Amino acid sequence: MTRHRATLADVARLAGVSLGSASRALAVPHEVRPATLERVQCAVAQLGYVRNGAAQALASRRTKTIAAIYPTLDNPIFAVSIQALQQTLWGLGYQLLVASHDYEPAREVDLLRAIVERGVDGIVLVGTDHADGVYDLQRQYGLPYVLSWAVDETRPGQCVGFSYLDAAQRMANLVVERGHTRIALCPGIADCNERVRARIQGTRAALQAHGLVLRDDWIVERPFTFEGGRSAVAQLFQASERPTALICGTDIQAVGAIGECRDRGLRVPDDLSITGSDDIELASLVEPKLTTVRVPTAEIGRRSAERIVGLIEGRPLGETQALQTMLVTRESLKDIAGLAPHPSRHRKEKQR
């Protein structure tokens, strides 16, 4: 015997509300009185009601779904940001669809095409460096979009992120202040990634300001993985002249670099100082604890959600401002200048 499929009218009847109130409670729960919302939700649970998403989308031209495409789902910083993005969207009455292109630009275009053809109201991407096909699809479907983890003066209303250039300069300055002059960089892979190119540019500019040079053979482009950090150390220590400090683009790379040093009998930071970026939980657990850049991971997710919904709903939002990062100094960076960090400088960094 086929069971009767519950309808919205059934939900309204059981909840003791009008059909319009039941519809609003499911579509825009934040606009409904809590008591009404609770009765409707109880009726939905009791009846096992499931909305007809296709019919709803046709009627309203809205799917109440946001798509977010990330370079990878392996990095903890993206996991934290996705969680904040999803929770904020839920509170605003939207659902989240997540995909990853594994740092392959061509795959991102294919993913986005499949997603938008099924129907979404907006898209959240990471960074500004995307294939033309990505922006072509956005224009073709007229989709609002947010570029997260990015700042771009040419897109003042679309970007939510921080300056990788500034963060890289400040980290390089800190390493130089600790007395290091032979500094290597493992920034990630620059092709199709403007954030990696900003790291290289910022590090080079900071060293030049101190009369130093970022050597081309000490810029070791590797993936954002533990193995990426390991292979960077392996390459750098093949040569007779070696750096005293290695700045990594992520904490994951830095932890891998520390592991490679340990396997080679090298002491961190005595033989090689290592720094990272992101300040994931592992950064304060690894030995030695990692000097890194704390980035506003959850804030990026929250603000990206608020901005994409605002763009979809046509609310005036104004321009975005770059979020702030903070240097976190721990034991993996050695002071070879023989000078303890100046207290006032330390306080200034903690406040930024």
What does this structure look like?
This protein is an alpha/beta fold and 352 residues long. It folds into three domains: 44 residues, no CATH class; 125 residues, Response regulator (Rossmann fold, 3-Layer(aba) Sandwich), CATH 3.40.50; 156 residues, Rossmann fold (3-Layer(aba) Sandwich), CATH 3.40.50.2300. The chain contains 13 helices and ten strands. The strands form three sheets. It has a five-stranded parallel sheet, sandwiched between helices. Helix 5 links the parallel strand 1 and strand 2.
Number of strands: 10
| Secondary-structure element pattern, one letter each | HHHHEHEHEHEEHEHHEHEEHEH
Broad structural category: alpha/beta
**What is the CATH-assigned architecture of the largest domain?**
3-Layer(aba) Sandwich
- Which CATH C-level class of the largest domain is it? Alpha Beta
- In the sheet with the most strands, the strands line up as 2-1-3-4-5
CATH topology of the largest domain: Rossmann fold
Shape: elongated
**Overall residue-averaged pLDDT value:** 89
Oligomer: single chain
Uncertain runs are: 339-352
Q: Give the N-to-C terminal Cα separation.
A: 66 Å
Overall structural domain count:
3
Within CATH, the superfamily of the largest domain carries the name: Response regulator
Count, helices: 13
